[in-house]
Amino acid sequence: MGIVNVTPDSFSDGGRGPEAALMHARQLLADGALILDIGGESTRPGAEAVDVDTELGRVLPVIRGLAGSPALISIDTMKPEVARAALDAGAHLVNDVSGLRDPQMLSMCAERGAPACIMHMQGEPRTMQLAPHYGDVMGEVFGFLAAQAGRALSAGVPGVLLDPGIGFGKTPDHNLALLRALPELSALPWPVLVGASRKKFLGALSGNPQGPADSRDAASLALHLHAARCGAALVRVHDVRSHVQGLRVQAALESA
Ligand code: PMM
């Protein structure tokens, strides 16, 4: 899954408006992305929410511009109104970082027959990194995901992906614990998505705490290869080309 952020404050691939985002999306497809994840609201720590019209003004031109391409399109939003309009414009999947906590998002996905990615987030983006706290991080995160999957499927959502939400209301230790426990999450009956691309904690882990976001691509690939080995079905990444190469080599080694 290639990341297409259409936001002025996107840390590495946005800020250039829908035209540039569309070109970026086409490049990610050429690089081998199967799904493009289009987002018009930043969910990075500390980010302020935007209104429906602003978000739609960013994502709809990109989704419409991709009509007729072979891309599967995912809309990265927490707002049912945005998700509905994106599905009308041709999106196939709803990626909700709030994990379908809004009942309207859940019922809209069911009505529209749209599959959903359910991500775990503690709190909300503006404040989630101030003081993340868990008694039992694996139990709480995996428990939430399994409960939401059950709720969504019984409401008629046709399919779900589960995502532990790396960096969303989590300390570096929480992220590592969840990543080490991925085989447990992958053992549940639903496909797993992992998105750690260019996230800040990778800077510290890789001995590069001050570098810019795009200096964390090798660290991202190492982490996502681990995720794939642990059973993740999808990884959400900025640098599609290097991930396709790395995942193909890993698959070739494993197929022996
Ligand atoms: N991370 C971001 C945004 N959307 N969606 C899912 N499902 N999983 C993630 O980990 C995730 C996401 C924030 O990262 P970005 O600013 O690089 O898009």
Automatic annotation (TrEMBL):
The pathway this protein participates in, as annotated, is: Cofactor biosynthesis; tetrahydrofolate biosynthesis; 7,8-dihydrofolate from 2-amino-4-hydroxy-6-hydroxymethyl-7,8-dihydropteridine diphosphate and 4-aminobenzoate: step 1/2
Q: Which InterPro entries match?
A: DHP_synth-like (IPR045031), DHP_synth_dom (IPR006390), Dihydropteroate_synth-like_sf (IPR011005), Pterin-binding_dom (IPR000489)
What keywords tag this UniProt record?
Folate biosynthesis, Magnesium, Metal-binding, Transferase
Report the GO molecular function annotations.
dihydropteroate synthase activity; metal ion binding
Sorted alphabetically, the Gene Ontology BP terms of this entry are: folic acid biosynthetic process; tetrahydrofolate biosynthetic process
UniProt catalytic activity? (7,8-dihydropterin-6-yl)methyl diphosphate + 4-aminobenzoate = 7,8-dihydropteroate + diphosphate
Superkingdom of origin organism: Bacteria
Offer a single GO CC term for the protein: cytosol
Please give the SUPFAM superfamilies that the UniProt record associates with this protein: Dihydropteroate synthetase-like
Descriptive protein name: dihydropteroate synthase
What species is given as this protein's source?
A: Deinococcus irradiatisoli
